[in-house]
């Protein structure tokens, strides 16, 4: 009687043993291109490494997988049979790995990208409320504006719809953008009391920003004011213009969500109120969000905080 370790070479057990995965990968790439050099480039190996892996595979299987002629290689009939099976198997593995990674992304912390000023002045001050309500949801907040790609590790993004995004992105509206002029309470005398004229008195300094250069014109149009000369300082970012208004340097166009805490605390006033400017903030995702679960909870919370 023979034990398993004493079994003869060439037994049914040996026939079922698979060659190394690395050798099969090298063979599959070489077969796809029928070129060892191109396979080497794809797999970040040398031409010699591909050649040796294929030769070892041929020796192990006992068949020629390539016909070598004039420095070129061509698949043999046995090679074509094997590459069909290897390609199918690798595609199944890629699909399974992709599903596992997608599942892992659902279980790991999410990355939520949010426009910087909205993140600083609206989302972060309210975030402890979300964490208290949903202690089992781990979200990493990052600042980002404008174009982005979900391939960069972003799971969800909050953006204002003032630029085009791919049709493949799933869009969930959060709240409309409402804007109005704001300043420090002791500077409220800068506002004009006259109806139908310019909203500010002559000489009142307007605060502008490079990121929304037409904010004053868009507000005047939405609020029903005639065009007027809105001279004043130009700052680099929207956040800076709001901080300048808090410092008493002038009157800024303040989106409601970005100044609502300052209005509530009395740091800023908005004598002319707020109007919708036609844009809105949205939650973007790579695919439609499930109707229940953690992401649905986050969406509902964001909408509730935006009221």
UniProtKB/TrEMBL annotation:
InterPro entries referenced in this protein's UniProt entry, alphabetically: LysR-type_TF_proteobact-type, LysR_HTH_N, LysR_subst-bd, WH-like_DNA-bd_sf, WH_DNA-bd_sf
Span of domain HTH lysR-type: 19-76
PROSITE patterns recorded: HTH_LYSR (PS50931)
Gene Ontology molecular-function annotations: DNA-binding transcription factor activity; sequence-specific DNA binding
Record keyword Transcription regulation present: yes
UniProt KW keywords: DNA-binding, Transcription, Transcription regulation
UniProt entry tagged with the keyword Flavoprotein: no
One Gene Ontology biological process: DNA-templated transcription
PANTHER family xref list: HTH-TYPE TRANSCRIPTIONAL REGULATOR (PTHR30537), HTH-TYPE TRANSCRIPTIONAL REGULATOR TRPI (PTHR30537:SF74)
Similarity remark: Belongs to the LysR transcriptional regulatory family.
Name of this protein: LysR family transcriptional regulator
Annotated organism of origin: Herbaspirillum robiniae
